[in-house]
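Q: Hi! First time asking for a complex rather than a single chain. Here are the components, and I think there are two in total. Is that enough to go on?
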Amino acid sequence: MWKYLPDILSGVIVTIELALLVVATGLAAGLALALLRSLGIRPINWAIVLVVDCFRSLPPLVVIVLIYFGLPSAGLSPSGFVSTWLSLALVLMSFSEEIFWAGITSVARGQWEAARSTGLTFGQTLLHVVLPQALRLTIPPLTNRTIAITKGTALGTVVAVTEILGQASSAMSNSYNPSPLMMGAAAYLVLFFPVVVAARWVETRFAWKR
Amino acid sequence: MIQSFFNPEIIAASWPIVRAGLKNTLLLSLLVVPLGLLGGLILALLASAKAPMVRWPLMAWVDFFRAFPPLVLLILLFAGLPFAGLELGGFVCVAIAFFLNTGAYYGEILRAGIESVPSGQVEAARSTGLSRLQAMTYIVLPQAVRNVLPDLLSNTLEVVKLTSLGSVVAVPELLYQARQAQSLTYNATPIVVAAAIYFAVLWPAVRLLSRLENRALAAR
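A: Yes, that's all I need. Here is the structure of the assembled complex.
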């Protein structure tokens, strides 16, 4: 059983890389879209809502399969890693845009007007007045959603990404023994359990009570 | 582009396969949503007992399934259990995995709902002679469910989307059928069709959810 440990560990590295990439790009893109939406340009907002609704309705696995098996017909052949990263980042972008946007709209209009009347520009108002309040409101739904989507890195297995589950499954079929799968399962718990507990802590520490 | 993604001949040829998948996805959803709700209700009712002996293990249980990817759970049941001499079909494995995984999420939501009902309600109900069970069923739960309706709907949407995992363990649901059709036709059109079906079925729920969430926000 222990001879498969290096395989699992290399899977852990891939999972961590993939997860960090998804979280960083997904949240950044989501925040960027929410800020763009706050400018209030009608056609742009419609486009944002359409894209966001699209990735909120499609199962992440369907998006991954679509990109990985579909794009080659259009002359692009993204690797399994890139397909999974792109798909999960798009899904996280869409969910986080909705959450950030809800946070921004929840800040009372009077705050905007008061800030603007003291001479702050639109950008300054957003940065110093609205976002600090909006972001604290978004913490509980955001941490939940981010964890749920980041766990989706396991879906990469379907498109041959050598992350934990992929490594564990192939080790299991090589050894005809389920121990590598148990090691993989344990690796997921070691990786994600602290994140879930940390999220609970962040929620109680930083989030505003309603 | 149209030839490889929106090919009308392939849509026509693969439609019976994809339609069978859609039917199975709907049936699967009708099975796993009530199953998850049942699991969640059990957890939430257990959690409403305030004893720390019950609460701590429950919290650990819920956090365990929040940390554990559902696909890993499914593979563990499907590929791991046969080594223990227990060979369950893909369908049964999906049902068990969803009962455990989505049950934990539903449980968290229903618990929050039950806690949102003021304790005076229970006291008033009990003082009129209702038993604890009656007070829970007729007074607390209806209000609890109403308070967390957007979250319940949102989670249900996630559960329906999650049924696509069944394709990994050969349950012939929409995604699995579409991939079968794709490998038969060497064409990506069936997957595009499947994605369009998911969108058509789930988009109204997504819109409704946005509305509910915005209204909840405006009410504060």
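A: Chain B touches chain A through 47 residues (CB under 8 Å). Let me know if you'd like any chain examined more closely.
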